[in-house]
Automatic annotation (TrEMBL):
<keyword id="KW-1133">Transmembrane helix</keyword>
<protein>
    <recommendedName>
        <fullName>Colicin V production protein</fullName>
    </recommendedName>
</protein>
<keyword id="KW-0472">Membrane</keyword>
<keyword id="KW-0812">Transmembrane</keyword>
<feature type="transmembrane region" description="Helical">
    <location>
        <begin position="159"/>
        <end position="177"/>
    </location>
</feature>
<feature type="transmembrane region" description="Helical">
    <location>
        <begin position="26"/>
        <end position="43"/>
    </location>
</feature>
<feature type="transmembrane region" description="Helical">
    <location>
        <begin position="121"/>
        <end position="139"/>
    </location>
</feature>
<feature type="transmembrane region" description="Helical">
    <location>
        <begin position="50"/>
        <end position="69"/>
    </location>
</feature>
<feature type="transmembrane region" description="Helical">
    <location>
        <begin position="81"/>
        <end position="100"/>
    </location>
</feature>
Length: 183
């Protein structure tokens, strides 16, 4: 009986040392996992369309987000929201709009087999990085600094933001030259 209570005490002590609190790193890893899984379900053609929609949304949200935010805050439609929230919602709505609008447009032939799976995973991975760094770019410097203190991964992702913007385009070009499998 004494051994059982000792084991219970050790288990309670061990469980007390495990921190299961959500963190930015956990969020980033889960976001990447969800995007890669989603890209496997959709396939290369559709995830390419989503990636291009993300570029369009990034350009529109960055270039017109401040103007639209000021317009809606001055009009009767304005609600008390931050510029970050406004730009993030605008970014998401534009991605959703272009993804649904271009549902029937295919980005080249669908490659099946191992190469198609690899392409889907790569596109999903880089789409996740592109989306996360795009949303982080809408934050103020103070907000980003607060997240960087909590997550080295987020700091490194934003440090190499240029790569997250360029690499997806390079992979789209590279994979467009790969040999398509015959049906």
């Amino acid at each position: 009986m004494e051994q059982i209570s000792q084991v219970k005490g050790e288990a309670t002590e061990l469980a007390g040392n495990i921190n299961l609190a959500p963190s930015w790193d956990l969020f980033i890893f889960l976001f990447f996992a969800v995007c890669v899984g989603y890209s496997l379900l959709l396939g290369k053609a559709k995830i390419s369309g989503i990636m291009l929609s993300t570029y369009v949304a990034l350009a529109i949200a960055n270039e017109s987000g401040n103007f639209l935010y000021n317009y809606f805050n001055k009009s009767s439609y304005g609600a008390s929201t931050s510029i970050f929230t406004f730009k993030t919602v605008l970014f998401g709505l534009i991605i959703l709009f272009f993804t649904l609008k271009n549902e029937n447009i295919k980005m080249g032939e669908v490659t099946r087999g191992l190469m198609g799976t690899i392409m889907s995973v790569v596109y999903g991975f880089f789409s996740a990085g592109l989306i996360l760094t795009s949303v982080a770019s809408f934050m103020s410097d103070i907000q980003r600094a607060a997240i960087y203190k909590q997550s080295n991964l987020a700091a490194h992702m934003m440090q190499f933001r240029f790569i997250w913007l360029i690499i997806p385009i390079a992979f789209i070009v590279f994979f467009s030259f790969t040999k398509k499998e015959t049906k």
